[in-house]
Amino acid sequence: MIHIFQNYWGTLLYGLGQTLLCSLLALVFSLILGTLFALLEESPSKVARGIARVYIEIFRNIPLLVITMFFYVVFPLYVLKMNGFTAGTIGLTLYTSAFIAETVRAGIQSVDSGQMEGARANGLSFWQAMRYIILPQAFRYVIPPLGNQFVNLVKNSSTLAFVGGFDLMYQGNVIASSSLETIAAYSAVGVLYLVITMPISYYMRYLEKRLA
Amino acid sequence: MLQNFIDAYSPDNLRYLFGGLGITILVSVVSIIGSFIIGSILGIIRYVKIKYFSAIVGFIIDVIRNLPLILILFFTYFGLPNLGVKPEIIPAAILAMTIFESTMLAEIVRSGIQAVDSGQMEGARANGLTYWQGLWHIVLPQAMVKMIPAIVSQFISLVKDTSLATIILLPEMLYRSQIIYGQNTNYIIPMFVAIALMYFVVCYCLSVLARYLEKRQA
Fold first, then answer.
1. Which residues of chain A neighbour B185 with C-beta distances below 8 Å?
2. What is the ipTM of this complex?
3. B129 three-class SS
4. CA-CA distances (angstroms) from residue B166 to A106, B93, B181, B188?
5. B214 touches chain A (CB under 8 A)
């Protein structure tokens, strides 16, 4: 395995970079989208709640790969040409945002309802109360599950390999087929994934314990 | 456009797609059963803290949990032949899914057991049960009830994750839809609609079940 690192470190590093870039982009956008839909679900408007529910159910119950393939295969035909990396990142963002919406909503619900009542009684509007009173408290509860979502995101970014996204998994396949050392190549890729995911998931477990 | 849908959903194509659904369900059900059994055992091993053994098992669980499933699929299908074992596609997919999902379940089981009040075990021991009797008859049944919603949502992920096995050419829905629209590009949208719907129906039913169980338990 060590000689795989020696011979292919450039390829592996490039793949690692693409994986990290895709995961970070998807994290930022899905955090924004997810929070937005969580707020819609908690809003007083029935229409908004319906829209959020449909969005979340669709993206939670369809496999990530189908969503990604949709943006890679169907989208370029009728709408806009995009490369594998973009298609993969969009798919990953939409898929993850549904899970983040559920996580954030659980966080909002775990904040004592007296907080909202107090804020409203003090003259804040519903959205002001959400923004200044509820969300800041909710995010504290939400950090460990969000960290776990990020670990999932890094793992799920391996679907980029299906659409030619040049991520770590893709490079692993390239190395495996050019070096013919399948096990060594995949082990090297595995080690690089673990370098990212293991510390985060251990840290999140620590945070969970401390919060509990 | 409408004509494309009508042509794409010809009886032959539909039969072929539903055959893919059958394989998805077959792989899912076998992996669910396998990973439930293995995951429960691993979770208990991790919980009871047998010296060294539990720590090693725990570390292996953490390593597998933090790897992408696609990598494990590659290991079983392309890596095992290098070690002299050449699994067929369906067994390879089931093996990879079972290995991966049982580590996910092990974590659910472990945290479920930990969530049971420690007084239950103390009470059981005080009433003369051995540690294992207490675990089996008192703690586990209570933990199982708490874990069910999390376990069902893990099974939803499992069903969705079977689509990743197209990469080792498992002839399930996604793979078969690609074969159909590979013959006629007009069928691309109808095929995506069809498989998205099929996955959605299966997974949505499971998530309704998960929510029902969650409510009943609360």
1. 77
2. 0.88
3. coil
4. 34, 9, 15, 17
5. no
Task: Give contacts of A 96-115 with B, CB under 8 A.
Answer: none
For residue B2, give the 3-state DSSP assignment: helix
- Rounded CA-CA distance B173/B17 in Å is 6
CATH class of A2-211: mainly alpha
The number of C-beta contacts closer than 8 angstroms across A and B is 104
DSSP B171: -
- Using one digit for the tens of pLDDT, what is the confidence trace for A25-67? 999 999 999 999 999 998 888 999 999 999 999 999 999 999 9
How far B111 CA sits from the closest chain A CA (Å)?
Answer: 11
Q: In B, residues 171-190, which contact A (CB 8 Å cutoff)? A: 174, 181, 185, 188-189
Residue pair A129/A39 in contact by the 8 Å Cβ criterion: no
Share of chain A above pLDDT 90, in %: 55
Residue A202: the pLDDT is: 92
Query: pLDDT at residue B1 above 80?
Result: no
Q: Which of A212, A204, A35 is nearest to A134 (CA)?
A: A35
Does residue B13 have a pLDDT over 80? Answer: yes
DSSP chain A: -HHHHHHHHHHHHHHHHHHHHHHHHHHHHHHHHHHHHHHHHHSS-HHHHHHHHHHHHHHHHS-HHHHHHIIIIIHHHHT----HHHHHHHHHHHHHHHHHHHHHHHHHHHS-HHHHHHHHHTT--HHHHIIIIIHHHHHHHHHHHHHHHHHHHHHHGGGGGGGT---HHHHHHHHHHHH--HHHHHHHHHHHHHHHHHHHHHHHHHHHHHH-
How big is chain A by its Cα radius of gyration, in Å?
Answer: 20
pLDDT digit string, tens, across residues A120-176: 899 998 889 988 999 888 888 888 889 989 999 999 999 999 898 899 999 999 998
- Domains of chain B, with CATH numbers? 2-217 (1.10.3720.10)
Q: Looking at the predicted structure, is the pLDDT value of residue A211 above 80?
A: no
Please judge whether B174 and A172 are an interchain contact, meaning their C-beta atoms are less than 8 angstroms apart: no
**Amino acid making up residue B107:** E
